[in-house]
């Protein structure tokens, strides 16, 4: 018999894919990577411990409370400042709470500044600006999105380019335009048209509306065209009902913008009987005690705050809506 040499069989080599996977896997140094390979500051294992959870919630509460105070404290200071006497307001260091609150200062501010007149003027200007904004911006966005004119992209680019121009740069040309309206040669000063017409064309609103209209399936519009619907009928019966979230956002933003505007109404509405709320309070501020003036500012800010709290869900839904399900 011949001598047979038994040699040990070599261990099977690791598959190439496993070695490549190990080479491509990130190294976990300390607590920089979670179990899913995503880089984080704190590992999931640390959050399962008592000390980790305590530190996490402490930081979260501190950040939330800090940002809340930063935004709410100015309004709190304004409300409590109106309840203080002029001597308390001039006190150094100032007190946080009034020593003897005087709630009658709000009624005094309402009567001395004739806030009812200014509120009616402001509501008129904001309501008209809202209607003209929807009429102009919705039709412009619909034309650019669905009708697609020949120079549509150039027109949209020109509208968006206006957003890069500071408002103060076009203040004088806009004033001269309102002073002597081209072609018609009308003087629009001291009229609501001086507020309504400039507010109607807004490049940002047109951009928001167009982006939403682009997400509407074209099959819906083609089906309506086959049934014989005109472009106006399609806009009124199909596009507008579907676009209620973004129309709500544009409506709220246009009303709030017209409500809080100051510089433009100050220029085009010099007549005191036609001033909006912001301009009327500023024009009479030098003749009033400081606590009465602060009370007037509180009253002027209440409508905008109420609108925000009532329609905040619509604002968030409209800004995040960009597609249709189904």
UniProtKB/TrEMBL annotation:
- Cellular component terms, GO, for this chain's entry? plasma membrane
> Known Gene3D superfamilies for this protein?
MetI-like
A GO biological process this protein is involved in?
transmembrane transport
- Annotated region Disordered: where? 1-29
The family database entries (Pfam families) matched by this protein are listed as:
BPD_transp_1
Asked whether the keyword Chloroplast is assigned, the reply is: no
Q: Which PROSITE patterns match?
A: ABC_TM1
Q: What is its main location?
A: membrane
- Which parts of the sequence belong to the ABC transmembrane type-1 domain? 119-311
Where is this protein found?
Answer: Cell membrane
Output the InterPro entries linked to this UniProt entry.
MetI-like, MetI-like_sf
Q: Which residues cross the membrane?
A: 54-77, 123-142, 154-175, 195-213, 234-259, 292-311
Name the membrane topology term.
Multi-pass membrane protein
Q: Which PANTHER family match?
A: ABC TRANSPORTER PERMEASE PROTEIN MG189-RELATED (PTHR43744:SF12), ABC TRANSPORTER PERMEASE PROTEIN MG189-RELATED-RELATED (PTHR43744)
Q: What is this protein called?
A: Multiple sugar transport system permease protein
The taxonomic lineage of its organism, from the top, reads: Bacteria, Bacillati, Actinomycetota, Actinomycetes, Streptosporangiales
């Amino acid at each position: 018999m011949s001598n047979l040499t038994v040699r040990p069989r070599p261990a099977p080599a690791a598959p190439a894919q496993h070695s490549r996977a190990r080479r491509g896997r990130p190294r976990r140094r300390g607590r920089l990577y979670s179990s899913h390979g995503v880089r984080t500051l704190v590992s999931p294992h640390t959050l399962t411990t008592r000390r980790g959870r305590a530190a996490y919630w402490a930081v979260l509460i501190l950040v939330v409370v800090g940002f809340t105070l930063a935004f709410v404290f100015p309004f709190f200071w304004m409300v409590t400042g109106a309840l203080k006497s002029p001597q308390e307001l001039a006190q150094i260091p100032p007190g946080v709470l009034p020593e003897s609150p005087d709630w009658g200062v709000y009624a005094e501010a309402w009567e001395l500044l004739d806030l009812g007149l200014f509120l009616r003027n402001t509501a008129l200007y904001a309501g008209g600006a809202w209607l003209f904004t929807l009429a102009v911006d919705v039709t412009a966005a619909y034309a650019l999105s669905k009708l697609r004119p020949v120079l549509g992209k150039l027109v949209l680019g020109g509208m968006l380019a206006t957003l890069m121009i500071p408002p103060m740069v076009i203040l004088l040309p806009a004033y001269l335009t309102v002073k002597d309206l081209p072609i018609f040669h009308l003087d629009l000063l001291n009229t609501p048209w001086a507020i309504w017409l400039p507010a109607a064309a807004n490049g940002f609103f047109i951009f928001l509306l167009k982006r939403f209209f682009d997400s509407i399936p074209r099959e819906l519009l083609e089906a309506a065209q086959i049934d014989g619907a005109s472009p106006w009928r399609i806009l009124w019966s199909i596009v507008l009902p579907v676009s209620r979230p973004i129309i709500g956002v544009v409506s709220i933003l246009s009303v709030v913008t017209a409500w809080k505007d100051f510089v433009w109404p100050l220029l085009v509405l010099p007549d005191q009987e036609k001033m909006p709320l912001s301009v009327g309070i500023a024009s009479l501020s030098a003749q009033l005690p400081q606590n009465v003036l602060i009370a007037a500012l509180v009253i002027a800010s209440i409508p905008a705050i109420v609108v925000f709290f009532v329609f905040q869900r619509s604002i968030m839904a409209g800004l995040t809506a960009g597609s249709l399900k189904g």
